[in-house]
Amino acid sequence: GKKILIIGCDPKADSTRLILHAKAQDTVMDKVRELGTVEDLELEDVCRRGYGDVMCVESGGPEPGVGCAGRGVITAINFLEEEGAYTPDLDFVFY
């Protein structure tokens, strides 16, 4: 099979829910708020393996009514780049 990474960019964080067997997962922004800084976040904290061995990450967004949802996507993508999530063996990355 192909090696696939899906990065959910919906502030509701439900883009990967079906692939993860209807389980919600912590988003990058949820964990950043919990830990206080993105520097304390590990890839394993937000990356989950789902159906067909597809890797799933949800960017999340700011608290409702505060800030811009795009900031969550940018934070998540920068974090994934810094943590080496975009490995050369990936066949597809979907956003």
TrEMBL record:
Gene3D superfamilies on file: P-loop containing nucleotide triphosphate hydrolases
UniProt cofactor(s): [4Fe-4S] cluster
Domain of life according to the entry: Bacteria
Leader sequence segment: none
Residue spans crossing the bilayer: none
Single GO molecular function: oxidoreductase activity
Coiled coil: none
Record flagged with keyword Manganese: no
InterPro entries: NifH/chlL_CS, NifH/frxC, P-loop_NTPase
Transmembrane helix as UniProt keyword: no
Pfam short name (any one): Fer4_NifH
Keywords for the protein's UniProt record, in alphabetical order: ATP-binding, Iron, Iron-sulfur, Metal-binding, Nucleotide-binding
Family membership: Belongs to the NifH/BchL/ChlL family.
Protein name in UniProt: Dinitrogenase reductase
Record organism: uncultured nitrogen-fixing bacterium
